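@channel sequence for tomorrow's demo:
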Amino acid sequence: MGYKPIAIHSTILFFSIADLANIEPMYQYSLMWFINLFCLSIENAEKSEDLKKRLDNLYHHFTYSLYCNVCRSLFEKDKVTAEIFCVLKHHILKPIIF
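structure tokens (generated this afternoon):
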């Protein structure tokens, strides 16, 4: 299966944050910004020879990095709504893709 699970996870995250513009038009994140953040996670996540461990490291590092960067740009009044929205979208889409 290779790196497909992290690709699917990242795709779901991208489209989740892209939909935040429906909450507030100012919340628009470019694909280039997202890719750059992902590349930073590839560089900075703990390396491992074991693919499963490497995927786990990438999964957690990238998810946390994205969370921190997105939360920094949200208005206080929208933070809980945005978090719930992204979590629900992730839980709805993940079983459909697999």
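heads up for whoever presents: The chain is about 70% helix and 0% strand.
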